[in-house]
Design a protein that fits this description.
InterPro entries: Beta-prop_DCAF12, WD40/YVTN_repeat-like_dom_sf, WD40_repeat_dom_sf, WD40_rpt. It contains four helices and 32 strands. By secondary structure, it is mainly β. It has one domain: Methylamine Dehydrogenase, Chain H (7 Propeller).
Length: 435
């Protein structure tokens, strides 16, 4: 592409001088900032769906197992492994639910499927939803041998987060967060709820609302839990999951997703992404208004200086936290003479950097909508099942797939995106890699 050719010419021109390292760094940063405008969609929905004998429905969660294999959890309670190199897919069997002391709450909504897939730091275990939606199943990698099914919640498990290689936290619709100790893969010892001082019944922390997400940051050793009561609670894993702080959210409608990176927490709601710095007395830093504010923010990611979030209508937005502005998703052609125009210096208005769409910062106040709406990546057609719900309510309509999850690979050069129809009862699936 033209921007890449210009950068290569500049590097060749300065190869013998002392500015080569500076130019390489600037060119690398330029490509990172321009990534959304350079990506191409590789949709694999049809390939994966046809490779399996049973119908699939709505991919809710995903995780990179390694550099070339992906794990995907669906509403139909399938755990899929997709090999991006070989182009193959297989369904991972889940162990049968073990006996339990407490009955599971019955619901008219049926099964919820797998809402969480997460690999531990060592890469030798994966925690995911169980055959019973109220359980969390831990499998050994890479052979997926059952390690333990964590039984204790009485309602759907919405989230799981590793806090060490052998400890995992789960959050459930039963309004509790639990910490579990997992045995070594080859020890054969049973896992049990982690026993803490003063908690003879196991380490549970009760919330006033349903727990929709939990995230742990290994740099700050901070565990955050998102509750439908309209807050983020910071929990201490070394002190019986004691809540060290509760941060009330200004935008607290449809809280379904959260991400944490270092000292920044991002929470998605119906019309905003709220950014929180837990170190500050006033936790909320600002709120980024979602241009697609009718269907809610369904997934959110933080990677370096980039905030990305997916919506219920399948729109994926990218927000530069340094510039407080959205990144464009259409290429901006730079002039030929980038050196004279200040392309790498950042001081010229005519450089090849993306023309950022500015949005004023909002600190605990209503966010300002962006006019005109910023560019975005739109999820593809995917698969929509023409069932009774479709013919009764959606026949002839264009169905947009909600972006339920999007995750970067380790190099940040590939973005896996998955989802399905937002409407209840409407079955479908969307899976793709943007690269």
């Amino acid at each position: 592409m033209r921007g890449q050719n210009v950068a290569q010419k500049l590097l060749q021109r300065e190869s013998g001088g002392g500015h080569r390292a500076e130019l390489q760094q600037a060119a690398s940063q330029h490509f990172i900032d321009r990534q959304p405008a350079l990506w191409q969609e590789q949709e694999i929905t049809g390939k994966l769906a046809s490779a399996l004998s049973k119908p699939l429905d709505k991919a809710f969660a995903a995780a990179w197992q390694d550099d070339h294999r992906l794990l995907v959890g669906t509403k139909s309670n399938d755990l899929l492994q997709w090999d991006t190199t070989a182009g193959t897919v297989r369904s991972i069997p889940l162990p049968a639910p073990p006996p339990r002391q407490h009955s599971i709450l019955e619901t008219v909504w049926g099964a919820c499927g797998i809402h969480s897939v997460t690999v531990n730091p060592a890469g030798d275990m994966v925690a995911t939803g169980g055959a019973e939606p109220a359980d969390c199943t831990v499998l050994r990698l890479p052979d997926f041998a059952p390690v333990q099914t964590l039984v204790g919640h009485i309602d759907w498990v919405f989230a799981a987060a590793w806090v060490s290689d052998r400890h995992v936290v789960t959050g459930s619709r039963d309004q509790t967060v639990a910490l579990w100790s997992i045995p070594d893969c080859d020890s054969g010892a049973p896992a049990e709820q982690y026993k803490g001082m003063g908690t003879p019944d196991g380490l549970h922390r009760k919330f006033a609302g349903k727990v929709r997400d939990v995230k742990y940051d290994f740099d700050s050793c901070r565990l955050a839990a998102l509750s439908t009561e309209g807050c983020v609670k910071l929990l201490d894993t070394t002190r019986n999951l004691r809540a060290t702080r509760t941060i009330e959210l200004t935008y607290n409608k449809e809280l379904v997703c959260m991400e944490q990176q270092h000292d920044l927490v991002a929470v998605g709601s119906m019309g905003h992404v709220t950014l929180i710095d837990p170190r500050r007395r006033a936790g909320e830093l600002r709120a980024v208004a979602s241009p697609d504010n009718n269907e809610g923010v369904r997934s959110v990611q933080l990677t370096q200086h980039l905030l990305s979030f997916g919506t219920g209508r399948g729109q994926l937005f990218f927000y530069d936290l340094r510039a407080n502005a959205f990144l464009p998703t259409q290429p901006v052609q730079p002039p030929e003479d980038c050196v004279s125009s200040g392309f790498f210096g950042g001081g010229s208005q005519h450089g090849g950097l993306p023309q950022l769409l500015q949005q004023p910062a909002v600190a605990a106040a209503p966010a300002v909508s962006v006019q005109p709406p910023p560019c975005h990546l739109q999820l593809g057609d995917g698969l929509v099942v023409h069932n009774e719900t479709y013919y009764s309510h959606f026949h002839g309509m264009v169905i947009k797939h909600a972006c339920y999850a999007h995750i970067w690979d380790a190099s940040h050069s590939r973005l896996f995106v998955c989802g399905g129809p937002l409407a209840f009862g409407l079955q479908g699936l969307y899976l793709s890699v943007w690269h």
